[in-house]
Design a protein that fits this description.
By secondary structure, the protein is mainly α. 62% of the residues lie in helices and 0% in strands. It has a domain of 39 residues. The relative contact order is 0.06.
Length: 63
């Protein structure tokens, strides 16, 4: 494992611990004003997954 990967994993682990108290809880907030101000049009979940897969594929092909 590369040294940079070890550092990234260590950072992620400490971040994950801090999220432990949020597991099983939900957030219900109205962000409609923010979406209107920024003219936000959320990306469909399917598009998000496909874009993520494309990014991972591109990353892996450059290793």
């Amino acid at each position: 494992m590369k040294k940079s990967n070890i550092c990234q994993n260590a950072y992620f682990d400490s971040e994950a611990k801090s999220m432990n108290s949020y597991i099983g809880k939900t957030y219900d907030g109205d962000v409609s004003t923010t979406m209107e101000i920024f003219d936000c049009n959320p990306i469909a979940f399917k598009r998000t997954i496909l874009d993520t897969a494309k990014s991972i594929e591109s990353y892996l092909s450059n290793i």
